[in-house]
Design a protein that fits this description.
The complex is a heterodimer.
Chain A lengths: L4 H25 L29 E4 L22 H13 L9 H10 L3 E15 L2 E10 L2 E9 L5 E3 L4 E3 L1 H13 L2 E13 L4 E7 L2 E9 L2 E6 L2 E7 L8
Chain B lengths: L2 H17 L13 H14 L9 E3 L12 H6 L10 E3 L9 H15 L5 E3 L7 E3 L11 H15 L2 H7 E3 L12 E3 L7 E7 L5 E5 L2 H6 L4 E4 L4 H4 L11 E5 L24 H12 L6 H32 L7 H7 L2 H23 L5 H10 L7 H7 L14 E4 L2 E3 L1 H9 L11 H4 L8 H5 L15
Antiparallel strand pairs in B: 1-2, 3-4, 5-10, 6-7, 6-10, 7-8, 8-9, 11-12
Helix pairs in contact in B: 4-5, 10-12
The chains are: A alpha+beta, B alpha+beta.
C-alpha cells in the first residue's frame, strides 16, 4: 500500500528532527572536559613542600610540624589524619614567634586570655555576613563597615547556592545597621555568621580575627619580630629581620 | 501521539540534555605561566578606558571555536556569532562599571576571550566559590550573552572589600607588578585601580572608575601617575595588608589564607605611606624621567581629574535639581559628594607643584613648562600657603592657559584658576551645593546645604603641597 503524501512528509520531517537531535546529543557528549576546580570547603592543609618561601632574605618562614605520613601502598586510603590537634601546631608556631611566652592551649584559649585579662583596648568590626533560613529559603545580610556607618546589602540565594543581590548596598548609621541586623535575624533561623574584626591591645599589639559561628576560624597578630597567622589548626610564623621596610 | 509531536518531543528532550549544566562558558585552557604572560600583554594592548564603548574587540583566540566540525550546525544550536576576522563583537559593549567592577572585568573579560576558568570567593559566604559553572544563565543559548549576563550579575555582588579576597599583596618590584595587576586602598577609602601598564619611568598607567563615574559614562578613567600613598594607605592596619599593588590569586588559592599564596609579600604595608610613591617609582623605573616630561605627565593627570570632576559635579547638580533640592540620605550624599575625588585632585596638584619647584630650583625647566606650568605655580620660591595668599586675583583664560574646562554652561576656567580656587578651599565637595558653590564662584555652604544633614567632607591642607 503506498503512503499518502502528507504522511510521507511527516515521516521525512520526523526523521530529520530525530537525526538533528542525535547529532546534538553526540556533540554535547564530545565537549572538552572542564578542568576541575579545587574544592574550597575543608581544603587540605598545605604540605611542607607547598609552603611559599619569601624572596625577602629578611623574612624567615617557619613551617608547621610535618603532616602525618601517607598510608602504606597495600592498604586502602583511610580517613585523612589531621596533625595531632590544635595544641601541637599552634604551640610550635607560637613559640617561634614569641619564644619568651608560654604558648596557650589553642587559638581560642589565646584570644579568650586576651579578652579576660583586660588587655583589650578596642575592637573594630570590619565585615559581617549573616545567613538565616526562613520558610526553607536561605537569606543573607552583609554589613561592611565604613568610617561613619555601615553599608548593608541583602541577598537571596538561588538553587545553586549563588547569592542574588536584593539591591545596592545602603549606607546607614551604626545604630540603624544594628537595628536592621536584629530585624533580619528575627525573621528566621540563623545558620551561619561570619565577623571579621581587629583587636587593639593595651600593649600596642593588634590582632585580626575572622570569626565563623563564634569560633576563631582565622587570626593573625604581629609585632616588630614577625607575624603569627593561624587558620583553625594550621599556623605559620613569619619572622622578620631588619625592621620596617627596606632602606632605599 | 502524532508523529510530528513525537519527533518534536524527542528533539526537545535531547536538545535540552545537550545544554544541561552548560555553564557560562566551558574552559578549554588553564592558567599556565604562559597564559598569565599573555594576559598581561592583552591588558597592556587592549584594556583601555574606552573598552566598554568599543563595539568590536580583538578576539584573542575566541573565534578559534569556529573550526569545530559542523560549525554551522553548532551555531544553529546556540554557538557564537563570531566572524573570521581579528575582531569580534564586544559582548560587554555599553556596560557601566565602578571601581571594583572595572577590576573584576579586566580579569573576567580575558578569561572569557581565552576560555579560561574564572572564579571568585563568594563575598557573602566565605567558604563558597562563585564560578562560571553557574547554570542560572543557561536560558541564554549564546555564550557571549551568558558571559555578559554573568558579569552584570557579578557587578551586583562584588565590591572593593571582595577584591581583597580574590587577590594578594605583592612585593614592590617590577617582577611582581605587571599589566593586569591592581591597586587597592584601605577600607577607609575603599577604592581600586587596574594597572594597564608600568611606564619605563616607573609610573603606573592606571585605568579605573568610580561610583559616580559609573552613572555618567561608559568611558572610564585613566591616569599616568602614582596615587597618593597617604590616601592609599590611610588608616592602614598592618595586620590587614590589603592596600597597595596586588595580583590575582591562582584559583586553587581562593579561600586559602592569604599568606599561603605564592608570591605573597606584605612589604608594602611596612613602607612609610609617604614614601611609597618615591620608593615605588625608583624600583619600577628602567630609565630616568626628564623634568619637562614629568611635569607634563603630571599636568595631564591633573587635567584628567579636573575633567572627571566636571562630569561628577554635573551629575550631582542634575540630581539636585531633579529632586527640587530635597535633602539627601547618606547613600545618595556619599554617591554624589566628592571628598575623595577632591582630595585626589588636590594631591595631583600638590605632586605637580613639588615637581615644578624641584625642577625650578635645579634650573631644569624648559621654556614651555616655565610658561604654562609656571602660570599655575607663579611663586615657586615660597611655600604653597604663601603662594596661595599671593594668588589673590582670579586667573583669566588666555593663550598661556592649559586644560581649559567648561564647568557650567558658558563658564570656563583653566588649570591655574582651578588650582587657585582649590587651594583657597573654594571648591565644595558637598552635593547639596549648586554648581556655583561646587566650583568656587561662591564660598559655601549654600543655604540649602546648611539646612540639610551632611556627612564628613574634605578641605585642603595646603601645607601638604610643599
Amino acid at each position: 500500500m503506498s503512503m499518502r503524501p502528507t504522511d510521507r512528509r511527516r515521516l521525512i520531517l520526523m526523521a530529520v528532527l530525530a537525526t538533528a537531535a542525535a547529532v546534538a546529543f553526540l556533540l554535547a557528549r564530545s565537549r572538552p572536559h572542564e578542568p576541575e576546580f579545587p574544592p574550597l570547603i575543608e581544603a587540605e592543609p598545605p604540605s611542607e613542600a607547598a609552603r611559599p618561601t619569601s624572596k625577602d632574605p629578611g623574612v624567615v618562614v617557619v613551617k608547621n610540624p610535618p603532616a602525618v605520613a601517607a598510608p602504606a601502598p597495600d592498604q586502602p586510603p583511610g580517613p585523612r589524619k589531621m596533625p595531632s590537634g590544635p595544641r601541637a601546631t599552634f604551640a610550635a608556631a607560637y613559640r617561634e614567634c614569641f619564644p619568651e611566652a608560654q604558648p596557650p592551649g589553642s587559638p581560642r584559649d589565646y584570644l579568650r586570655d586576651m579578652a579576660t585579662r583586660g588587655e583589650l583596648a578596642r575592637r573594630e568590626t570590619h565585615l559581617e555576613n549573616l545567613h538565616i533560613r526562613t520558610e526553607g529559603v536561605e537569606r543573607r545580610l552583609q554589613s561592611r563597615w565604613r568610617t561613619h556607618g555601615q553599608e548593608i546589602q541583602y541577598f537571596d540565594v538561588d538553587a545553586e547556592g549563588l547569592p542574588l543581590s536584593k539591591g545596592a548596598a545602603v549606607l546607614m548609621t551604626h545604630d540603624q545597621a544594628a537595628e536592621q541586623k536584629q530585624r533580619f535575624l528575627s525573621r528566621g533561623e540563623p545558620i551561619f555568621r561570619q565577623r571579621t574584626e581587629a583587636w587593639h591591645l593595651k600593649n600596642g599589639q593588634r590582632l585580626m580575627i575572622d570569626w565563623r559561628d563564634d569560633e576563631p576560624f582565622e587570626f593573625s597578630t604581629t609585632d616588630e619580630r614577625g607575624t603569627l597567622g593561624c587558620r583553625e589548626a594550621d599556623c605559620l610564623c613569619r619572622l622578620r629581620h631588619g625592621g620596617r621596610g627596606r632602606a632605599d | 501521539m502524532k508523529p510530528l509531536a513525537l519527533g518534536l518531543l524527542i528533539f526537545a528532550i535531547l536538545g535540552a540534555f545537550s545544554n544541561a549544566q552548560a555553564a557560562v562558558w566551558t574552559p578549554t585552557r588553564a592558567w599556565t605561566p604562559q597564559e598569565e604572560a599573555r594576559y598581561s600583554n592583552w591588558v597592556k594592548r587592549h584594556w583601555t578606558k574606552d573598552f566598554f564603548a568599543r563595539q568590536q574587540i580583538a578576539n584573542e583566540g575566541f573565534a578559534e571555536k569556529k573550526q569545530r566540525p559542523l560549525g554551522g550546525l553548532f551555531d544553529f544550536l546556540g554557538g557564537g556569532q563570531d566572524n573570521d576576522n581579528d575582531l569580534i563583537n564586544n559582548p560587554f559593549f555599553g556596560l557601566r562599571v565602578d571601581c571594583a567592577d572595572a577590576v573584576y572585568s579586566m580579569r573576567y573579560v580575558y578569561s572569557f576571550l581565552r576560555r579560561l576558568p574564572f572564579a571568585i570567593q563568594d563575598p557573602s559566604a566565605p567558604n563558597r566559590v562563585i564560578s562560571i559553572r553557574a547554570t542560572r544563565y543557561d536560558g541564554y543559548p549564546n555564550e557571549a550573552d551568558r558571559a555578559r549576563q554573568f558579569l552584570v550579575y557579578l557587578f551586583d555582588i562584588v565590591s572593593t572589600d571582595s577584591v581583597a579576597n580574590d587577590t594578594f599583596p605583592v612585593a614592590l618590584s617590577r617582577q611582581s607588578i605587571r599589566p593586569g595587576s591592581l591597586i587597592l586602598t584601605t577600607k577607609k577609602n575603599h577604592h581600586s585601580w587596574t594597572v594597564k601598564d608600568v611606564l619605563d619611568v616607573g609610573v603606573p598607567w592606571l585605568v579605573f572608575n568610580s561610583t559616580v563615574g559609573k552613572d555618567s559614562s561608559v568611558i572610564i578613567q585613566e591616569r599616568k601617575s602614582w596615587p597618593n600613598g597617604l590616601w592609599v594607605f590611610e588608616e592602614q592596619d598592618p595586620l590587614d595588608p590589603r592596600a597597595g599593588f596586588r595580583d590575582w590569586r591562582p584559583l586553587e588559592y581562593i579561600g586559602r589564607p592569604v599568606w599561603e599564596v605564592p608570591g605573597y609579600d606584605d612589604e608594602q604595608s611596612r613602607i612609610e605611606p609617604a614614601q611609597w610613591n618615591k620608593i615605588g617609582q625608583r624600583r619600577l623605573s628602567i630609565r630616568e624621567e626628564g623634568a619637562d616630561e614629568e611635569l607634563f605627565r603630571l599636568a595631564q593627570a591633573v587635567c584628567e581629574d579636573l575633567r572627571q570632576r566636571v562630569s561628577a559635579v554635573g551629575e550631582a547638580v542634575s540630581h539636585l535639581r531633579e529632586t527640587q533640592y530635597a535633602c539627601m540620605d547618606a547613600t545618595t550624599f556619599d554617591n554624589f559628594s566628592t571628598p575623595s575625588r577632591d582630595h585626589r585632585l588636590f594631591d595631583a596638584f600638590a605632586e605637580l607643584r613639588r615637581a615644578y619647584v624641584k625642577a625650578w630650583k635645579r634650573g631644569r625647566l624648559g621654556e614651555e613648562a616655565r610658561i604654562k606650568i609656571g602660570r599655575i605655580f607663579p611663586y615657586p620660591d615660597v611655600s604653597a600657603r604663601d603662594e596661595m595668599i599671593k594668588m589673590d586675583t582670579p586667573r583669566v583664560v588666555n593663550q598661556k592657559s592649559i586644560c581649559v574646562i567648561e564647568y557650567a554652561q558658558g563658564l570656563k576656567m583653566d588649570m591655574a584658576e582651578a588650582k587657585r580656587r582649590m587651594f583657597l578651599g573654594l571648591l565644595s565637595s558637598n552635593p547639596m551645593d549648586e554648581i556655583n558653590y561646587r566650583w568656587g564662584d561662591a564660598r559655601g555652604p549654600s543655604p540649602q546645604a546648611s539646612q540639610c544633614p551632611s556627612w564628613p567632607l574634605w578641605s585642603p591642607n595646603v601645607d601638604e603641597a610643599n
